[in-house]
Amino acid sequence: MHQFTRPLDMRYDVKQQSFKISEPSHKVPITCMFLCQFDVKRGNVLMWSKNSSSVPNVSLKNIEFKSIPSGIHQVQKDVVSFIIPKHNNFDEVYYGLSCFEQNGLSLSGDTDHVDRSEVQMFSLGVVVDANFRYRGVSKSKFYDWKPNQFISATEYIDDIQDLLSHWLRRFSSFSSQTGSDSIYADYDLFETYFESNCVKSDTPSLSSPVLRRSWQNSSNFTGTSNSLREKSPHMLESLTQWFNYLGPLIFPLWKASLLQERILIIVGNGVSFEKCNSLVYCLSILALTPHSLSDHFKQEPLQPLYTIGITDMDALAQHVSKAMAENRDDYKIPGFVACTADEILEYRTELYDVCLKINGSESLPEIRMSDEATIKATPHELELYEKLVNSHLGYQLSHEEKEKLSRLIEPTTWSQYFIDGFYWWATAGYMKPSYHEPEEELETELDRDNLEIVLSLVGYFHGRISLLYESLKEVVETCDEEIVTVSPVFLSAISFDCFSARDYDFLDCICRKWFNKPLQVKSVDCRIIC
Question: How far is CA 492 from the centre of its chain?
Fold first, then answer.
C-alpha cells in the first residue's frame, strides 16, 4: 500500500454540496488561549490563560486535564482536540485545540533514569466559539455547516505548535545559561499572538478581506518562515489509515454512528490522540445525512466530544440523566463519539453504548457493547471490505492479511454454511449464491491521491445511506401492517448480511428511527439461493 503524505486542505463546499479542496473565508477568532504544564510536584497545572473581553468568560475548569490527558506522556509531541460545554450540556459547546510537547523521552536516551527536575511537559491551546457572530453582520456560510464547526479550532494547529516550540527553545537556552526558570513568567509571545487573533468588538466582519489581511500567524512573532512548514493535514485525511487499521470493523462502527449511539474509543499506550481525534471526526462524517435526503428528514450530525477523561464523567452522567428525566418510555440518550486514555471510563457502562479499544498498530482493535457483548463484523462485511480495498485503495489483501482479519469476523451461520456447500457441490465451485459480493478485477491507480481515495470512501458510505433510506421508504409505504416485514433477499440487495442477526436488529432500529415503524426479517428460506 502506498503511503500518502502530501498535505491538503479539505473543506465542505456548501454551494456544491460536496467535499472539495477549498479554504474557509476566515478563521474563527480565538475566544480563549492558555498554557498548561505537568509539574513533577504539583501534577497538571494551568500556568497562564487569557480570555477575550468581548465575550463571556469561558470556564477553564479542568482544562489542564483536557490538554494534558492521561497517557500523553508516552509521546514527545501530540495534538489534542476537546470540547467545553457552554451550559453544562453538549447542546452548545466551545471547540478547543492544544499542542503538547515534552523533553522527557529525549532525556531518557538509553537509560532508565531521568532527572525529573529537568523534565518539561507543556500544552498550549486555544478555545473558539464557532457559533460566534458579530452583531449586525451577516454570518459566514462556511460555518453554517456543523461539521465545519467541529474542526474550527484545528485551523490553529500550525501556529500553536510553532509558538510552543519557539517558547520552549527560548526557555532551554535561558535556563542553560542562568540555571533559572524565570522565563516561565514571560508569556509576552502568547499575549501578543492572542491580541492579534482574538474576538474583538470592533472587528468589522468575519468574512471581510480586512480581517484576512490583518490576520497574524505565528511567523510574525517567531520569525519562522511559513514556506518551511508543512501544513497539518485535515482530520478526514486519516480515513485511509483508519480504514486499513480497523478493517471490516469500520462497518459496525459506521452502523453505530448512523444510529447515533454513544461511542467511546479507548486509546491504548503510545497511540496518538491526534489520530484518535481524527477517527472521532471521520465517524461523524461517514454517518452524515446525504444532502440528497435533506428534504426528507433532518438529523443532526453525530456530536464529536473528542478527548475526554475522568473529569468529564459528571458531565456524561448528567447527559444520561437529562434524557431519562423526560419520563418517557422511549427516551433516547443523544449520541456522541469520543476518545479517552482513562480506562476507568470503560467500566462506567451506563455512559456509553459502544466501546472501541485501540491497542496499537500491531494489535487488533476490539469492539464491545455496554452489556459487554463483543461486536464483530459479518462475513459479508469482510467481502465488502476486500472489495473496497480492491476498488478504492487499489491493492489486494495478502493471505496473511486475510488470516488476521478473519479474527474480526463472526462465525458463518449454519444456514449460510449449508447453502454455500450446496452451491459448491451443484456447480463444482463455479458459482456462488447471489448474496456474495461479485468478484471484480483489481483497479490499480498508482498516481491516485489520498484525497481522492478519502472522498471516494466517504461517497461510498453516503451512497449506502441513500440506498438504505430509499429502500426502506419503499417497503414502509407499501406495507399496510403495523410491522414492516422484509425477506433476507432485501438485505442482500442493499449490501447487508442476510444471515446476520445483528443486521436484522440494525434494520429494525434504523426503520424505527427514520420511519417510526418496527421491521422484521423473515427466516432464511430457499429463495435466498436463487
Answer: 29
Given a contact cutoff of 8 angstroms between Cβ atoms, the answer to whether 33 and 190 are in contact is: yes
Query: Nearest to residue 82, comparing CAs of 32, 30, 151?
Result: 151
Amino acid 22: pLDDT? 54
Say if 334 falls within a structural domain. Answer: no
144: phi then psi, degrees, rounded to nearest 5: -65, -35
CA distance linking residue 68 with residue 75, whole number of Å: 11
Q: Within its chain, how far is the Cα of 69 from the centroid?
A: 17
Top-confidence residue, 13 or 456: 456
Q: What is the pLDDT of residues 399-438, one digit of tens each?
A: 999 999 999 999 877 676 656 565 555 565 556 665 666 6
Place 263 in a pLDDT band, splitting at 50, 70 and 90.
very high
- Alpha carbon distance 353, 255 (integer Å): 12
The domain boundary residue, chosen from 231, 258, 276: 231
CA 527 – CA 205 distance, rounded (Å)? 64
Among 216, 231, 246, identify where a domain stops. 231
Q: What is the mean pLDDT of residues 65-76?
A: 92
Nearest Cα to Cα of residue 391 among 444, 447, 436: 444
Cell 436463487 sits on residue: 530
475 pLDDT more than 90: yes
Select from 513, 511, 530, 529 the least CA-distant residue to 521: 511
The closest alpha carbon to 96, from 50, 155, 8, 178, belongs to 155
Domain range spanning residue 62? 10-231
**Residue 416 falls within a domain, yes or no?**
yes
Counting the structural domains of the chain, the total is 2
Q: Is residue 86 included in any domain, yes or no?
A: yes
Find residue 49's DSSP bridge partners: 34
Q: Could you tell me the three cell numbers for 316?
A: 456524561
Cβ pair 279, 306 in contact under 8 A = no
